[in-house]
Amino acid sequence: xxxxxxxxxxxxxxxxxxxxxxxxxxxxxxxDIGYKLSANYYADTYRQSLMQGGFETTNAFGTKAQMNxxxxxxxxxxxxxxxxxxxxxxxLEGKDHLLPTSSVLSSNNYTPNTAAYAVDVNxxxxxxxxxxxxxVIANEVQTNLSYTGVxxxxxxxxxxxxxxxxxxxxxxxxxxxxDQFSINIKSKF
Length: 189
Known about the structure:
Elements: E1 5-11, E2 16-29, E3 33-47, E4 56-69, E5 72-81, E6 88-89, E7 109-110, E8 114-126, E9 129-139, E10 144-155, E11 164-174, E12 178-186
Antiparallel strand pairs: 1-2, 2-3, 3-4, 4-5, 5-8, 6-7, 8-9, 9-10, 10-11, 11-12
């Protein structure tokens, strides 16, 4: 994972929108332990209509500390969406999750004035299998939400080169109850 920066623009007949993103990453390892520290900044600059004179901006930032020991991995993360008129989307055009506190399935978009925390643990019994669990809590202005998820990823090169099977489950708790389950199959041609 390398540091990344990008800007993406959307111009429609009724709105303008530009998202800016930058990330700083530091990683290293000792004899047995690998670690990564990252920080990112996200800005969504937009006009709700072309008739509107000025632009409004929603800003967000996040930090993440990750550690790996042999086949075990874990991270803790924090993100904060500052004031603005619309939420910060954590997922954009096939990029990795832009906010490090995205849940397994349910939450990758936070409203303004939201702080979120995430804890993830995972295990890879073989290099082509990953099993993990993630817990996220988001403190919005008037509500608290929690997300508990489990996920797995299987590289099935024995069946077809580049075939990947992912299974994910996410439960939303505290203020609302909801379950999501996903099966994701990817293959390279």
